[in-house]
């Protein structure tokens, strides 16, 4: 039996201004932008990082965003990270703190309105406590 090892190569986003949006996400992730033509690539930062690719919009943004990023931070650091991201230009939408015992998260939007979440997971011995 053949096993497959699939990894995430990059998250691709269309943007009204790829350079500006890439600069925001570079500040979020710590990546160094690599422009090429009208597009910008952000390489992964560290072994658990992820790459991002920004290209010009080819059509109007749909009214409903069908997918979004879930970013994870260490337990106890979500609020400070959310505050940092808001200072960088993210927009706060809502918190989900008591709905699930295994995760708390804040939903934000990047400067072009793309939703993303910043989540933290309590240590196993604190879940459901």
From TrEMBL:
It comes from Cryobacterium melibiosiphilum. Residues 11-118 form the Glyoxalase-like domain. InterPro entries: Glyas_Bleomycin-R_OHBP_Dase, Glyoxalase_6. This is VOC family protein. PANTHER family: CONSERVED PROTEIN (PTHR35908:SF1), HYPOTHETICAL FUSION PROTEIN (PTHR35908). The lineage of its organism: Bacteria, Bacillati, Actinomycetota, Actinomycetes, Micrococcales.
């Amino acid at each position: 039996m053949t096993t497959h090892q699939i990894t995430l190569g990059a998250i691709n986003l269309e943007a009204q201004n790829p350079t500006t949006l890439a600069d925001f996400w570079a500040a979020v992730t710590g990546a160094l932008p690599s422009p090429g033509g009208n597009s910008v690539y952000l390489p992964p930062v560290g072994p658990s990082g992820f790459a991002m690719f920004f290209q010009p919009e080819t059509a109007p943004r749909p009214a409903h965003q069908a997918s979004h990023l879930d970013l994870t931070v260490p337990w106890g650091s979500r609020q400070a990270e959310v505050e940092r991201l808001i200072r960088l230009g993210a927009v706060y939408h809502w918190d989900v703190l008591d709905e699930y015992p295994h995760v708390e998260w804040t939903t934000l939007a990047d400067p072009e309105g793309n939703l993303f979440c910043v989540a933290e997971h309590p240590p196993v011995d604190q879940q459901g406590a």
